[in-house]
Amino acid sequence: MPKAKIKRLYLIPILSKGLDVLELLEQVHGPISLEDVYKKTSISKTSVYRILKTLVHRGYVAQTQNGQYRLVARPRRLCFGLAVQSADLPFSQAVSRSVTAAAAAAGIELLLLDNRFDTETAVRNAEEFAEKRVDLVLEFQAEESVGPRVANIFKKADIPVIAIDVPHPNATYFGVDNFECGVEAGTLLAQYAQRKWKGNVDWVVGVGFNEAGSFVQSRITGAFEAVKQRLRNLPTERFVQIDGRGSRNPSRLAVGEFLESHEGSQRILVASATDSSALGVLDAARQCGREHDIAVVGQDCIPDALEEMRSGQSALIGSISHEAETYGPRLIQLGISMLRGYAVPPYNYVRHKVVTPETLNGDQP
User: Fold this and answer.
1) Tens digits of per-residue pLDDT, 272-319?
2) For residue 61, what pLDDT is reported?
3) Closest C-alpha among 247, 259, 144 to residue 205
């Protein structure tokens, strides 16, 4: 006789337990304690506790003031819109990954659109968010000039907005304190000049991002201020700002022109608004054999910048990390708080930290 085939059940045990808890709450028609849930389901108390806390977090269950639990009407799943600065930029990619993971963990649907570093695309994306009636928008759009247009679209649609890194009218700001990040960069540059060049500097160059507006540009302002405080004999006319558009190739071209017109300068400090710009500065210096004449600090700590610093042979002496991996959880929680009617600060700053070749290679604590 052939053996009878045993039908396998592809079940997920913890999910089955979660459904048991939900079905019990549905049957009791009122608040019930954790202890009673444990006794009635025969599920371990630890599992019951974690299941109930998860159901509360996801909005299926409410917890009363005396600690009991009751089933609530399931709210509609929230939908957030995320417009990324550009899917081609490493920092933008890191923010997108962080937000996507955090939204999934919180049970929030995410509509992701790419602004492509283009103003008209940003406007079209805003119109799409409004048409699809998302509950809230996370707007990562770099050009200050189009901010009012984008913000007006959301205002008309009555959609709350969190502006990432670049402020927008009527939006809650989320990002770094740009001036403080600039000060950190300028301090690194000044310390390098004091240590390597005995404080003698020919030029201090800020490779900025004019389209992002004065808020992001304050990364350069802060860097200049820090250098002036430490190198007090350096005349004001030795501070020069160049627009690198926050990108590698425009920065390479702009800094290349500067180096060509200042062939005799050998001690040049460079503060870049982004790491992409900092890498463009390195490209320009290498093309004309001038890397030994410069010291560069960037912003963002993107992978290519970290690789440069790890080599120990690069003129990139540091970068200010904006901790992109922390953006997602904080942005999602901030958005949920806004939709629940909680008061939130108009400016929500993220942590930043200084990263150097020494800290990457473990030479400093």
Assistant:
1) 999 999 999 999 999 999 999 999 999 999 999 999 999 988 999 999
2) 86
3) 259
Instruction: With 0.85 as the threshold, say if the pTM is over it.
Output: no
- Determine the Cα–Cα distance for residues 253 and 15; give it in Å rounded to an integer: 57
Write down the pLDDT at residue 5. Answer: 54
Strands 79-84 and 353-355 come out as unpaired
CATH, range 79-175+325-350 = 3.40.50.2300
Residue 98 contacts residue 326 (beta carbons within 8 Å): yes
Instruction: Return the CATH architecture of domain 178-321.
Output: 3-Layer(aba) Sandwich (3.40)
> Going by DSSP bridges, is the β-strand pair 353-355/161-164 parallel, antiparallel, or unpaired?
unpaired
CA-CA distance, 239 to 226, in Å (whole number)?
A: 12
Beta-carbon neighbour count of residue 154 at 10 Å?
A: 24
CATH number of 13-71: 1.10.10.10
One DSSP character per residue, 300-315 reads: S--HHHHHHHHHS--S
Q: Do residues 85 and 115 make contact, with C-beta atoms less than 8 angstroms apart?
A: yes
